[in-house]
Amino acid sequence: AYVEEMYGSKYQWIIPGWYENLWWESWINSSHCLSKNLLAAMEGYIGVDFEPLSSKMNKTISGRTPQQYEREYNAKRGDGQSSKFHGYAYDGIWVIAKTLQRAMKYLNATNKHQKIEDFNYTNHKLGKIFLDAMNETNFFGVT
């Protein structure tokens, strides 16, 4: 950004905010940028982040609150490495389960003589059933 003169009052950089404090210091050591140039280019940047788990105390689709889920997650992982995205993976599994459940219910109700096990990537009708089922899926998750 500095070399390309993409900084100053006409530019606003939006940078993911999940980096560590002073993240640029370790990056400077592995680049050809001077510290003062990098700081000049980043001046006034906006750091954005997201809330990895909901702070609401509502019970989720699993019957747990996000806080209960987090305690269980931390207890099960022990000293293992954590990911900031674990709640999204958890909710993603629920989306898949609810989609399959809705698709099976539709197939049973329409007496289509098809099962979800019949899916392959060339079966456009079953693919549409899955897509519609996913689009209709809505629940309160941990994220």
UniProtKB/TrEMBL annotation:
KW Thylakoid (keyword) present: no
Xref: Pfam families: ANF_receptor (PF01094)
SUPFAM superfamilies, per the entry: Periplasmic binding protein-like I (SSF53822)
Organism classification: Eukaryota, Metazoa, Chordata, Craniata, Vertebrata
GO terms for biological process, alphabetical: gamma-aminobutyric acid signaling pathway
Protein location: Membrane
Record-given protein name: Receptor ligand binding region domain-containing protein
Source organism per UniProt: Bambusicola thoracicus
GO terms, molecular function: G protein-coupled GABA receptor activity
One GO CC term, this protein: G protein-coupled receptor heterodimeric complex
Record domain Receptor ligand binding region: where: 4-143
Main location: membrane
UniProt KW keywords: G-protein coupled receptor, Glycoprotein, Membrane, Receptor, Transducer, Transmembrane, Transmembrane helix
